[in-house]
Write the structure tokens for this entry.
Amino acid sequence: MFWNSTGVGVWRYDASTKVWVDAPNAVPQSPYQYRFDYLCLVDNNSFDVDCLAAATECSAGENGRPVRWWWKLVVAGPNDWSRIAPDRCVYSEKPDDVLGKIAAQIQTKFQQLPVSAGNSVMQPNPHTLRGAETNFYVEAAEQSFTVDMLGQSVSIVAKPVQYTWSYGDGTSLGPQTAAGGPLPQDRWGEKTSTSHVYTQTGDFSVVLTTHFQGTYSVNGGPPLPIPGQGQFSSPPQTVSVWRSITRNYADDCLRNPQGQGCPGVVPPAP
């Protein structure tokens, strides 16, 4: 993934201008391309036996074929490929077929993974006030998984890149790249890029949806981008919105023990 020098925005490749542009509200793209070649391939599906004997040993399964991966920058020329060492194995008589099938299925597999959406943290918590800025922020982490797909060991990395809040009162925020962050207690109530103001009292269910960008690697090969995103939602979090009432009194409780607000005195109806 490509992040800009400030660590805030993200970069995307603009095909029309052939340059990388700062796009802070976009999902980061990989600046690399990958391809693989069969080792020891003579023609069609015929291999040089002596060459295979000297190549990478593929002993983790049946019908192992050694392949060599290459990479280059998206903006590089068509012949500017660099080798990725060491060589790897694909366990199929036709690696093109199995890698193509994995590529076609990887988005569905990604969405089926038990990815944790992370936590939506609220300040103040667990109660907030009607009409006040309530700060929300995300605690989410990169996660890794290893799965078997068509007899291949596939490693998947899920990285959180965007966030959406459903605040439970009919309003939402996102998707956006800003995850927000905590405020010291003496600054609670300040407006932030992820804060929300409730206009009614009551209990509301807040749901965080985290959008993950993924990469996958087949049998230890290079990290290939997963098209699209995986979206994962956290369990609903109940937020209680209260109201505050301010009253002024002429006496303190020493002078007037029966005054409103003193211990044992029933407050007036709101």
